[in-house]
């Protein structure tokens, strides 16, 4: 059996091919990722919450000596252990300051793509400033270089070629050259639709075909009927860069649903429940035990996992094994307001957790707006209603949206009836608040210290032939 995962950052896709694949498979309508990309990718490949890997604050910047810890095997390690050939194509963003952190040292037989978090689609060039958590800002120091690699070798002859085409062509080569006597794991981390938003003129219409190419190729190779195809976002859409999460609240980097309620589906002829929608709670960390188990592997040798095997839920429609979900606890984020329950958990700390149907947020959740799509007014607020919430209820225009009080730092929502997080139930249900704070306190007791080092000037691509490269 072959496994293929694909991620695209941002808003729900309108592409016909993806809609068709989702409709033929199982749509995941209660699926969560992380608000930003490094934590999501780290949990996909490790099966562990970011509080357990030290990555709970921000992304890994290109200039930082940081990476997904080496103390536990990755998903690719475990699948290769089960006899799979393993390939990563596209965005890495899990650290590269030492060679040990490169994809080809983390379980992947091959890698073609870029190591940093974003870059120009045509020049494959990016700049990064100096980062220091104590300053909570970037300085004027800037490092710039190229970032495209074939395994561990810098690629110097593809300037002007669109990244989506390059990545798709490499996936095609991998499938065409694959030894069918062994299964394959292909991790396709497309750059689209990450900023900067750049697209060839031919793609300005409504049809983009690069994913269907891979599907048709696998069908022709006789591999599609034994493939599990997983599609996932890696965070909510960035409003400032063309993303939209309407009618959810918030956007990329926030703890609101708009920041981390993910678009995901699974397509496979192996699904017993194909053509359906799952409303069971699933998290990106669940892919690790799900795929390792599905591939006939074992979870021996890993540090304690935070993910659950969800194949029975996805394929058969069984209840999810996951009853709660820690979104994050970030003690480095600037505190907000006063600590309201100091004997349980410091509510000034930025954190969020889902337990059953309730979600609790503390500290500063990030931007709290509801942003309509461009075809609607730029300023909308919901009408107050006592009836159950509906995706199709009316909205009324206003001049400004008052989203929260300046020092407010505790929010409780009943997500099934209030998916847009409009009604804060914290004062109405203090016992539920306390119970969820106790769960945050428990998780906080298991956390490792966040690791967010200063930028290292030795990262400068000028010292490495103009390319972002390991420097230690």
From TrEMBL:
Belongs to the sulfatase family. SUPFAM superfamilies: Alkaline phosphatase-like. Gene3D superfamilies: 3.30.1120.10, Alkaline Phosphatase, subunit A. Its cofactor is Ca(2+). The keyword Glycoprotein applies. Keywords: Calcium, Glycoprotein, Hydrolase, Metal-binding. The keyword DNA-binding does not apply. Residues 15-296 form the Sulfatase N-terminal domain. GO terms for molecular function: metal ion binding; sulfuric ester hydrolase activity. It comes from Pomacea canaliculata (Golden apple snail). InterPro entries: Alkaline_phosphatase_core_sf (IPR017850), ARSB (IPR047115), Sulfatase_CS (IPR024607), Sulfatase_N (IPR000917). This is Sulfatase N-terminal domain-containing protein.
């Amino acid at each position: 059996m072959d496994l293929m995962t694909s991620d695209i950052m941002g808003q729900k896709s309108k592409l016909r091919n993806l809609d068709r694949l989702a409709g033929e498979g199982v749509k995941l309508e209660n699926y969560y990722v992380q608000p930003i990309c490094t934590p999501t990718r780290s949990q996909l490949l490790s099966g562990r919450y970011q509080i357990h890997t030290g990555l709970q604050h921000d992304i890994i910047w290109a200039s930082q000596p940081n990476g997904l810890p080496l103390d536990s095997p990755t998903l690719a390690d475990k699948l290769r252990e089960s006899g799979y050939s393993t390939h990563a194509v596209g965005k890495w963003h899990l650290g590269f300051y030492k060679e040990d952190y490169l994809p080809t040292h983390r379980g992947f037989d091959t890698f073609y793509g870029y190591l940093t978090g974003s870059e120009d689609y045509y020049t494959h060039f990016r700049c990064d400033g100096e980062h220091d958590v104590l300053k909570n800002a970037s300085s004027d120091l800037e490092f710039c270089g190229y970032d495209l690699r074939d395994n561990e070798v810098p690629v110097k002859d593809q300037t002007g070629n669109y990244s989506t085409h390059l990545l798709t062509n490499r996936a095609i080569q991998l499938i065409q050259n694959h030894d069918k006597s062994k299964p394959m794991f292909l991790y396709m981390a497309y750059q689209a639709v990450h900023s900067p938003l750049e697209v060839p003129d031919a793609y300005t219409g409504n049809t983009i075909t690069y994913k269907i190419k891979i599907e048709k190729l696998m069908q022709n190779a006789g591999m599609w009927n034994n493939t599990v195809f997983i599609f996932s976002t890696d965070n909510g859409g960035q409003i400032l860069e063309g993303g939209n999460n309407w009618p959810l609240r918030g956007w990329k980097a926030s703890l609101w649903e708009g920041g981390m309620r993910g678009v995901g589906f699974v397509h496979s002829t192996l699904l017993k429940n194909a053509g359906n929608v799952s409303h069971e709670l699933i998290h990106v960390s669940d892919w690790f035990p799900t795929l390792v188990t599905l591939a006939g592997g074992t979870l021996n040798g890993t540090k304690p996992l935070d993910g659950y095997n969800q194949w029975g839920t996805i394929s058969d429609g069984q209840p999810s094994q996951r009853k709660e979900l820690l979104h994050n606890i970030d003690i480095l984020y600037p505190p907000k307001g006063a600590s309201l329950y100091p004997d349980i958990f410091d509510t000034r700390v930025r954190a969020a957790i889902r337990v059953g149907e309730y979600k609790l947020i503390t500290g500063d959740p990030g931007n709290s707006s509801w942003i309509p799509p461009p075809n609607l007014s730029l300023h909308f607020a919901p009408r107050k209603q006592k009836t159950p919430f509906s995706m199709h209820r009316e909205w009324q225009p206003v001049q400004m949206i008052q989203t929260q009080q300046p020092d407010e730092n505790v929010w409780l929502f009943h997500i099934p009836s209030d998916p847009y997080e409009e009604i804060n139930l914290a004062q109405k249900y203090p016992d539920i608040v306390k119970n969820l704070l106790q769960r945050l306190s428990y998780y906080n007791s298991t956390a490792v210290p966040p690791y967010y080092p200063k930028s290292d000037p030795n990262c400068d691509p000028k010292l490495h032939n103009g390319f972002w490269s390991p420097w230690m």
